[in-house]
Amino acid sequence: MIKCVILDDELLAISYLKLLCDQIEGIGVVKAFNNPKVFLQEIDDIDCDVCILDIEMPGMNGLQVAELVKDKKIIFTTAYKEYAAEAFDLDVVDYVRKPIKKERLQQAFEKAGKLLNEHQKNQFFEWNTNLGKTRIFVNDIIYIKTSEIDSRDKDLKLKNNSEIILKNLSFKNLFELLPQKNFVQINKKEMVNIQHIQVVSSSEIILDINSPEGNPLKLLVSDVFRNQVSEKLSK
Fold it and tell me: Which key words tag this protein in UniProt (predicted)?
């Protein structure tokens, strides 16, 4: 799912963009703004991947807004072709001319998706493990649990069914090394990559891997972390 935010000073344009996004599989509109200043005040606190910015707006145009947006992919929309060169100077994903067609917007999202996947594949951190200092790609992590041998260590279950042990690392410090939108702690001893959650209830989750017995892996969601899990999965 690609989460996007819309900024356009025209309410009809926002409604139309929402309608198009609803028709494209894998796209979700998190929030929409018609005021650039309000958008900039809130965007850093919004969990989203892509910002769809109208260029021609009173007071502050989309080009100026884009220069102030950090860590988000940008898709520009505009009725004016003369902005194209300036738009691509900002290294944005795409530049979509109005009136916008569904197929053209879908093409822009496909470009954004490829860039987001590539970025995610390249995210990693380095830490001391049972194998020595190791580079760990976060997209390969399925879940993490406190080691039964030494509570200061963390056992990592990876996509290729291998396991490694992170030495002397707390969940608090580990969480700072991970992309926070993708990981959530579910109880005192376990944290999971939410992309691998298949089923969730108030008391447990089921991951897309099997337990040693060959059954889908079920993990307990404790009372202390229940609201945190619910909030993270609802974003």
Answer: DNA-binding, Phosphoprotein
